[in-house]
Design a protein that fits this description.
Elements (H helix, E strand, L loop, with lengths): L2 H7 L5 E4 L7 H12 L3 E5 L16 H15 E2 L4 E8 L2 E8 L8 E2 L3 H5 L1 E4 L2 E4 L2 H11 L16 H15 L5 H6 L3 E2 L5 E2 L1 H7 L8 E6 L7 E7 L3 H14 L2 E7 L2 E6 L3 H14 L8 E5 L3 E7 L8 H5 L8 H9 L9 H12 L5 E5 L2 E7 L13 E4 L2 E7 L8 H11 L5 H8 L3 H13 L3 E4 L6 E4 L5
Parallel strand pairs: 1-2, 11-15
Antiparallel strand pairs: 2-5, 3-6, 4-5, 7-8, 9-10, 11-12, 13-14, 13-20, 15-16, 16-18, 17-18, 19-20, 21-22
Length: about 475
């Protein structure tokens, strides 16, 4: 995107413009500091509030103005901020552009105000004082420390909790997970005595009351009338499972009739929904006093996660595949137990699943200090549009039916239907799809193998299931 396009789009997390440089340096230096604490940014002089290119008056010496800006930044900000100042001509207007690069020595602050009061961050198109949570996170970033790896001293490492994690993780990974592996993952530290980390507390659901997932089904397209709501607390993986099943329970299913074959599938790709929920809990800011929220509306599934894009990454960069993980231990642990395939590749997998499914990709928005995802439902139509009773899936006629009545479809049939769309699948994915515990899902899979309808490939952690190929 060119500078012209950026300005036409308006001020943002990485762009601010002024018609002229304010005489009071405090009115603009704080923005320079905020850019350095975030993803960097451009401070443009010569553009008014209406996004008109008025330019810098010819009576002003550009070289003197550049020197004045450079001296002011150097003398009023700490630590040293890296920046560049260039003159650009756009639509016959001479502009001055101060490009601030994201810093590694956070927090940056206005020297005269001190670190506590002079640290600023960028929230959307505004510059704000960093509160204690933002300041603490910036301090950790500057020291290359991850919050979830810090000690959580108020929680004792109990044998019963270790036993639970090992059992739950072993079932999910389909291999034995030991206490030593948990320690190697930095879930707890210490030599003579085990000391819990924040990640350990989060995974057990004992970190904070706000470390939960709030789910709701609303009537219509606004957050007004509740049809259903539920809060998932306790162990993090169980929260993810609960929120995932809550969403699926309120999605429609497309029923495709092809000859005598009846095939059903959710209107949105289940794997993408689960991946979005996992991303929300992995990348959220656990120092903020708010929860992950998952809301189902008539027209969309909305997932809100506390904390904007972490570090020096922009939303555009994150969506293009770049990664900057906020909670390293959580990400590594969930990858180790096969809850997530590999941290840093989530968005690409989500987009790929949507493309294969033939639905619109989710919309990602930074709203203040929150990241929101809108996943629009293809089954939604405005009131009065009778033509939308039927939709198209793969150029075949379908009808929408409400999901939730699992007694109408045998679990084995659902497994076979799932494997038609997924040539190879792990027990955990199948379990979540059909809504049963792993142990019961394994029983059904074993029976289907004995019946010769599916085949098991590999062993233990790498075991997958697929349909038996018909002989030609």
């Amino acid at each position: 995107m060119t500078l012209l396009d950026e300005i036409k789009s308006g001020e943002s997390r990485t762009l601010e413009f002024k018609q002229e440089l304010p005489q009071d340096a405090r009115k603009w230096v704080k923005t320079i500091v905020a850019f350095a604490n975030g993803a960097g940014g451009k401070f443009v002089i010569g553009v008014n509030d209406k996004r008109e290119f008025v330019g810098i008056p010819k009576s002003i010496d550009l070289f003197e103005l550049k020197d004045s800006i450079a001296d002011t930044i150097a003398h009023t900000c700490e630590p040293q901020i890296m920046f560049d100042i260039t003159a650009e001509n756009i639509e016959n207007a001479q502009l001055l552009v101060v490009t601030v690069f994201p810093g590694n020595a956070t927090p940056y602050y206005v020297k005269s105000q001190g670190k506590e009061n002079g640290t600023y961050i960028r929230l959307g198109a505004t510059t704000r004082n960093a509160d204690w949570t933002a300041l603490d996170e910036l301090s950790n970033r500057g020291r290359h420390v991850y919050y979830d790896e810090l000690p959580f001293t108020s929680l004792k490492v109990e044998a019963s909790d270790i036993k639970y994690l090992c059992k739950d993780f072993s079932e999910r990974a389909e291999r034995k997970i030991t206490k030593n592996e948990l320690k190697n993952l930095n879930l707890f530290t210490g030599i003579k005595q085990d000391i819990a980390t924040n990640a350990y507390a989060i995974l057990l659901g004992k970190h904070d009351y706000t470390s939960r997932i709030q789910c709701a089904r609303f009537r219509g397209t606004e957050r007004v009338d509740f049809l259903d709501k539920k809060e998932y607390e306790g162990p993090l993986c169980e929260q993810i499972d609960g929120a995932y099943k809550f969403v699926l329970n309120y999605l429609s299913m497309a029923v495709e009739i092809n000859g005598i074959v009846r095939k059903e599938r959710y209107e949105l790709p289940p794997k993408a929904i689960r991946e979005l929920i996992i991303n929300a809990v992995i990348h959220r800011n656990y120092q903020m006093s708010s929860s992950v929220q998952v809301a189902v509306y008539d027209d969309r599934v909305e997932i809100s996660s506390p904390g904007s894009i972490y570090g020096s990454l922009t939303l555009e960069e994150a969506l293009s595949g770049r990664s900057s993980v906020r909670n390293r231990t959580l990400a590594r642990t969930l990858e180790k137990i096969d809850v997530v395939e590999g941290w840093g590749t989530g968005f690409k997998r989500i987009f790929s699943q949507c493309d294969e499914y033939g639905v619109k990709r989710p919309e990602f928005l930074e709203i203040g200090d929150m990241l929101r995802v809108n996943f629009y439902r293809p089954s939604y139509t405005k009131i009065g549009d009778k033509s939308a009773i039927n939709t198209e899936v793969g150029d075949k006629s379908v009808i929408n039916t409400k999901i939730g009545d699992k007694s109408a479809i045998k679990f084995k049939d659902k497994i076979l239907e799932y494997l038609k769309d997924n040539t190879e699948a792990k027990t955990q994915d199948i379990s979540l799809y059909i809504g049963l515990k792993l142990s019961r899902t394994k029983d059904y899979l074993s029976e289907l193998v004995e019946e010769g309808k599916i085949v098991a490939n590999g062993a233990n952690k790498n075991r997958t299931y697929s349909l038996v190929k018909e002989r030609e």
